[in-house]
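Target protein
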Amino acid sequence: MIIEPAAWDDADVRRLTDDQQEEVRARYGGKEEPGAHPSAADISVVLVARDDDGTPLGCGALRDLGGGVAEVKRMYVVPAARGRGISKAVLAALEATARDRGWTTLRLETGPLQPEALGLYEGAGYRPVPAFGAYVGDPDAEGSLFFERDLGTRRTGSGTA
């Protein structure tokens, strides 16, 4: 597997992120995601995980929030490739890219009906925080869960920093 940068409007990225949103809407009864939807204008980093033959397996993106903080967006692994550590590899690559860009904190929004995401983030050392940015006061964000990781800390075997 390789993880490589891509453009937000790349055909494989569009397909992966569309599939991610379809899966999220199915889990939440058709409800749209809260907050500002990501776009080519505000997504700074997109990474795609590919199999050795180039088949896209998963993706993740970062949105610059300013002040050394970025938001993790559109983490997704195709169902057939789940359980192979791809999400952990993509998240680690996003964190390394964030450090390279001088970002010191990553934040994210997820929901209680995404136990795989919760396990991934908690295992990687993300801790619960209050709503941030566009999510503050957004009625669509009620029930959302928010996490943050200080990139200056290292993860331990227990998932804590």
